[in-house]
Structure formats: structure tokens, C-alpha cells
Amino acid sequence: MKEYKYILLDLDGTITDPMIGITRCVEYALNHFGIQVNDLRELCPFIGPPLLDSFRDFYHFTDEQAKEATEKYRERFADTGIYENKLYDGMKDFLEEAIQQGHILMLATSKPTVFAKRILDYFDIARYFTFVAGSGLDSNNLTDHPSVVMIGDRKHDIIGAKENRLDSIGVLYGYGDREELSQAGANYIAEDIAGLRNLLLHQ
Asked: How would you write the pLDDT of the chain (203 residues) with one tens digit per residue?
């Protein structure tokens, strides 16, 4: 495993488990269209990908409907859903140790930047990150590609890394499985946060 100076991390399903907040907000948006959901776990595929894509892909919404559903989602998310979230066990220690070993940490998420920063503040981990990219990888403008690695739990994270010529690590404790991450082209796969430590940090 080569040394990476810059570590890009996805937020949902990688740093935090947002299952309750995201699925309840999706349910709220779907109810607006008269769609009832029997089990919130059915909505877990919404965790990770951009919301507009998910409403179109999973419920065949038009572009206009998807936009309206996203607005309804954020109506609930802004004050309630954002805090229905938990930090994965061991993540704070991983971030702390990475910083101590000289890594530069950045956040790359499809969430709006304002929400991402509020979540980092809520969990008292904002200080670990030098940069927050709220629209995915594109706004990072990193040019030293060999020293950068992206960590994420869904294929979108891995595909985004490949499009930006970055190495990637898929994590299995989030919402994507080994097949999804492997097919997307992850360079490495970590079962858990201990696996991430083994790949990236000096023991």
C-alpha cells in the first residue's frame, strides 16, 4: 500500500450513519406526492447518491418532480433530519490519528456544503478537515493525484475518484456491498474502520 498525503472522505455511510435522518426525510418528500412507505429500510438506497438522481431512478420522477421532492426533503432535513445521525464507532479516533501522522483530510460529499459543515460541527470533527467539498470531487482541484485517495461506501464515490484519476478505498460498513464497490473499480476494500487504519496509518 503506497503512502497517501491527502485523504478524501465521503460523509454519509463513511464518516456517519445517517440512515434514520435520510430515510425519514425521503419518506416526508414521498408523502408529499401521496406515496406511502411501509419500511424505512426500503429507502436506504438513497444514502450516498445525489437526491435528484435517486428520485428519478427509484421513483421515475420527472426532473421537475425530482427537484420538488428534493426541496421537500431539505425542508425536513435542515432542522430535524440533519441531527438524526450518528458517528461510526472508531471514526473520530481514526481522524485524530490520521492528522497526527501528517495526513491532510478533506470531505467530498453530494450534500450541500452548508449541511456538511453543520454535521461536522455537530459531531465536533470539523477541526480535522482542511477542506469541505459539498458538491462532490469536482471542486477539490487537486493536482497531486498519486498522493490522494478517496474513501467511500457507494459506487458513486469510487466512480467519482476514477473520473478524477484518484485511487479509492471502498468501505463495507456503510451502504454499498463488495460487489458494487469492486465493479466500480475500488483499488482497495476495507471491511471496517480497523481495516482503514491498517491500510492508511502507521501502526
From this structure: 789 999 999 999 999 999 999 999 999 999 999 999 999 999 999 998 889 999 999 999 999 999 999 999 999 999 999 999 999 999 999 999 999 999 999 999 988 899 999 999 999 999 999 999 876 555 456 666 889 999 999 999 999 999 989 999 999 999 999 999 999 999 999 999 999 999 999 87
Give the separation between CA 177 and CA 60, rounded to whole angstroms.
24
| Cα–Cα distance, 157 to 162 (Å, whole number) | 9
Task: Give catalytic residue positions.
Answer: 10
Going through 27-147 in order, the beta strands assigned E by DSSP cover 86-87, 104-108, 129-133
**SS3 of 161-192:** HHHCCCEEEEECCCCCCHHHHHHHCCCEEECC
Supply the pTM of this predicted model.
Answer: 0.91
> Is 95 in a helix, a strand, or coil?
helix
Give the span between the Cα atoms of 25 and 117, in whole angstroms. Answer: 19
Q: What whole-number distance in Å separates Cα of residue 182 and Cα of residue 15?
A: 20
